[in-house]
Amino acid sequence: MQKLTVASARCILGCFCVIVVIVVVVLVVVVVVVVAVVVVVAVVVVVVAVVVVVVAVVLLLLLLWLLLLLLLFLLWLLFATKWLCSSLKERVCVEQVGVYVGRQRGVHQCLFLLVVT
C-alpha cells in the first residue's frame, strides 16, 4: 500500500473539491433553468388571460352596441308604421301576425312585416 503523503492528500482533496464545485454549478444551472421556465409559463398564462378578458369585453361591448342599434331600429319601425297608419284617411288597420293592412277609399293595402306590435 502506498503511503499517504501530503501531496497525495492535497490531490485527493483537490479532486473532491472540483467534483463538489461541478455538482453545485450543475444544480444551480438546473434551478435557474427551472425557475426561468416557470416564470415564462406564468407570463404566458397571464398574457393569455389578459387577451381573453380583452376579447370578452370587446365582444360584450359589440353585442351591447348591436342590441342598441336593434332597439333603435325597432322603435323607428314602430313609430314609422304608426305615423303611416294614422296618416291614412278612412283607414282600418287590421293587425294579424305582425301584418298591418290599411284601407283608404277602396282597397289599398300596405303590408308591414313587424315583430313589434
Helix and strand run:
HEE
End-to-end Cα distance, whole Å, is 112 Å
User: Which structural class matches the secondary elements?
Assistant: mainly alpha
**pLDDT averaged over residues:** 76
**What spatial order of strands do you see in the largest sheet?**
1-2
Helix content: over 70%
Shape: rod-shaped
CA-atom Rg in angstroms: 42 Å
Number of strands: 2
Count of alpha/pi helices: 1
Largest sheet: 2 strands, antiparallel
Unreliable spans are: 89-117
- How large is the share of residues in beta strands? 5-15%
Transmembrane segments: 12-45, 51-79
Keywords: Membrane, Transmembrane, Transmembrane helix
Describe the structure.
- Keywords: Membrane, Transmembrane, Transmembrane helix.
- The chain crosses the membrane at residues 12-45, 51-79.
- By secondary structure, this protein is mainly α.
- The protein has a domain at 35-101.
- It is built from 1 helix and 2 strands.
- It has one helix at 6-87; strands at 94-96, 99-101.
- Strands 1-2 form a two-stranded antiparallel ribbon.
- The N and C termini lie far apart (112 Å).
